[in-house]
Amino acid sequence: SSHKLTCTTAETTPAATVHMYTLQNIEGKDLQSAGFGTSSAKTLTCSFWVKSSLTGTYAVVFKQITSAAAVYYYGDNYTIGTANTWQKVTIAIPKNTVANIVNDASIGFSCDFIVVSGTNYSSGTKLSSWTVSPATNSIEAGHTANLGATVGNTWQITGVQLELGSVATDFEHRSFAEELVACQRYCHVVQNGGTEAHLGVGAQYNTTAVNIALHLPNSLRVSPTVERILDGSSNWIQIYVGGASQSSNSVPQVADFNGNTIRLYCPSSITNRTAGEASWCHVKPNAKLILSAEL
Predict the structure, then answer these.
(1) What is the pLDDT along the chain (295 residues), one digit of tens a residue?
(2) DSSP 204-218
(3) What is the spatial distance between Cα 90 and Cα 161, in angstroms, rounded to a whole number?
(4) Which of 72, 35, 48, 37 is nearest to 164 (CA)?
């Protein structure tokens, strides 16, 4: 599989303030082994496969966020010389002995793959080392390709890997089960297509609101934001008390969070119930509940 960008609306010359990119954010605690901010800091290597219908020079920007919320930048370029042909790119990232990477579940590092860069971002001097708050026009310096110049231009990337040391090893292919566990740290979706999906056991908080206990297969990164996708009747949840049920479009709230256990509070869900009464709750057919803990 790969990630593909396609130009659908052309801009022959990008405005100075325009830049476009796709990025990967990484949790700070996952990069503590790099030792940034210490005398034993290590170099990093970023490798990936890329192809584009547009030849030219592209920029990759690396951002490092410290425990003091300072942002350091380092950038490099690669050239696509043959259109529509996969090529492997390897970029050496220098160590930073001056500043650390924040050690928690927030964004500590990112890789930004630039495809369009206006002069406000690319007309300066290329960064040759990690730099805190550099001139904006140096951040993407060296980038000249304009993927947005012609409708139908494409840029495609796969096999992105960031690792310790100065050698780019072969891409690590993980099993479906391993990837699923990794993904569930950032997002959990409750749905079952055209049939109901069990959500959890509930207890009435009062005559109209219900608390629902959710038990997730894996811990989320942080307390999630909640999005509901309604069905054709503008509802998303079905709440059963015994054999009787009521549908609702209640706006749910995360009341308590403990990794893979959540108390979901749904106000104004049903009517004429009794506080403490038990219920069982489903996501309705063609509806979804999305718990997002994305970076």
Answers:
(1) 999 999 999 999 999 999 999 999 999 999 999 999 999 999 999 999 999 999 999 999 999 999 999 999 999 999 999 999 999 999 999 999 999 999 999 999 999 999 999 999 999 999 999 999 999 999 999 999 999 999 999 999 999 999 999 999 999 999 999 999 999 999 999 999 899 999 999 999 999 999 999 999 999 999 999 999 999 999 999 999 988 999 999 999 999 999 999 999 999 888 989 999 999 999 999 999 999 999 9
(2) ESSSS-EEEEEE-SS
(3) 10
(4) 35
d(CA 93, CA 31): 13
Contacting residues for 104 by C-beta, under 8 A, at least 6 apart: 27, 28, 29
Letter for the amino acid at 206?
N
64 CA to centre of own chain? 16
Secondary structure element (H or E) that encloses residue 149, with its range: none
Q: How far apart are CA 132 and CA 96, in angstroms?
A: 11
At 108, is the secondary structure helix, strand, or coil?
A: strand
Q: If you write DSSP's letter for every residue of 43-87 in order, what string do you get?
A: -EEEEEEEEESS-EEEEEEEEEE-TT--EEEEEEEEEE-STT--E
Q: Do the Cβ atoms of 46 and 119 come closer than 8 Å?
A: no
* Six token digits for residue 295: 């970076």
Give the pairing type, strands 3-6 and 210-215: unpaired
Q: Which tokens hold the place of 51?
A: 């192809």
Q: What are phi and psi of 188, to 5 degrees?
A: -135, 130
Please measure the distance between the N-terminal and C-terminal CA atoms of the chain and give it in whole angstroms. Answer: 22
Contacts with 256 (C-beta within 8 Å, 6 or more apart), sequence order = 262, 263
Number of residues that make up the chain:
295
